[in-house]
Amino acid sequence: MTLTIDHVTREFVSNVGEKVTALDDINLVIGDEEFICFLGPSGCGKTTLLRIIAGLDRATSGKAVHDDHEIREPDPKMAMIFQEYSLYPWRNVLENVVFGLELRGIAKDARIRDAEQYLDLVGLEGFARSYPYELSGGMRQRVAVARALAVEPSVLLMDEPFGALDAQTRNMMQKELLRIWDKTRKSIIFVTHSVDEAVYLADRIVVFTPRPGRIKEIIPIGLPRPRDRTSSEFASIRRYVLDLIDEKENPSKI
Amino acid sequence: MKRYLKYALPIILIFAWELVAILVNNEFILPRVESVVMVLLQPFDDLFGSGSLVENAFMSIYRVVTGFLLGACVAIPLGILMGRMGWINDAVDPILQILRPIPPIAWIPLALAWFKIGFGSIVFIIFIGAFFPVLLNTIDGVKRVNKTWIEIAQIFGATDLQLLAKVIVPASLPTIWTGLRVGFGIAWMSVVAAEMLPGTTSGLGYLILYAYNFGQIQVIVAGMIVIGLIGLCIDYLLKRVETKKFHWQGMDR
Ligand SMILES: Nc1ncnc2c1ncn2[C@@H]1O[C@H](COP(=O)(O)OP(=O)(O)OP(=O)(O)O)[C@@H](O)[C@H]1O
Ligand SMILES: [Mg+2]
Burial, A133: exposed, middle or buried (Cβ in 10 Å; 0-12, 13-18, 19+)? Predict the structure, then answer.
């Protein structure tokens, strides 16, 4: 699996008719089983780029290519996890997890078997019949992860999936996600604006600058996993990334 | 104490009614409670050759259900189309805004001109009564379906039909259901009014109007009570479905 972002630019026209450049000439190649984090402040185009990769939006110019074909519409090899409203509230947990399989016409017995297996994987065996409103935020995101994995995608797109969780739950979910990633070996593109989260998770961090959204720097993180947040190496990488982000928020040019 | 309050007022009202009825002492103005109860206790008895309470109630229910289902069957698909496709909405909305404030009763003369006196014109009036609330709620419900829910399905590769059946309809069903409840309420009011048309020979509306000609005020009151109770029962049933099926509503995060 290779995902190539090739000179992608995305412009929006705002309500008052002004042109907003959300993404400006983005180039990026993502390989098999890679864990990539998109990091940057609000409004720098992270979601926009993820949506283009997902086939939910089109680049104004340039293209996103998955293996050998240009992404023009949602691609069955990709699954996405949203920050909010990620589950169907009228379906219980199991019905949510089978959703993608149901759309693909998998027989009922088979899809339930698959779904149960993924519910196990995310640690929600006992909650198949619960409704989303009966679950905590962390549990709901686990269900969303199970639903995404159930269709066996090769790329998992995650848009601030843990953004609404408290710090403790968030740390636990990060650990869980790495475990699941290790087991299933997908490529993951994970959007966040937490430096700590990016340094903890990523193989490579793609740092964006805001307005227009450009790639400022791509930082490979060589630290072995599991990573220790309290280690000095972790701290120095975090420091480096933070400085990188601060730099653009206080531009030195006059 | 508070729990019994809602029973207390009706009981007081019944006593007050009885008291006033005794003071008025004229069955043609205000019948005694017991004469109304007598009518209600013999729901299968023929009333002055116009059929029994039950027969006429069933006639009204039959008409209202026919008109209501027809209205819903047109309003729901149209509402989904209008909610999903801006251009259809833009095209139809002006007509809708003009027709909407016209009360169902105002359609009676046209209904008579088009369908003659009888089943057809009554059903048409009920259709009009049910149509607008169902349509407006369907449009509203469909428009407000969370965009993320739609995109999730698109990413999983949903076809348009799957999107409709598995996301749009279930997500907007609670709002559509509210429209059905309101629509049924209006349909039920409309049927009673429509049955008062000259030439009608059955239904609760007919019965209470006809009873007036015979000076049977107790039958009028009994008929009104039956009308109220049937409306209440049906709304209760629709509401029960709502609390059972749409328990997730308002809890979506
Ligand atoms: N549909 C749209 N119409 C107009 N402008 C848009 C649209 N979507 C995004 N934008 C603009 O594009 C820019 C990037 O938005 P985007 O949502 O990608 O940012 P983001 O990095 O995901 O921010 P956040 O961290 O807050 O989620 C913003 O300036 C936004 O106003
Ligand atoms: Mg975003």
Answer: middle
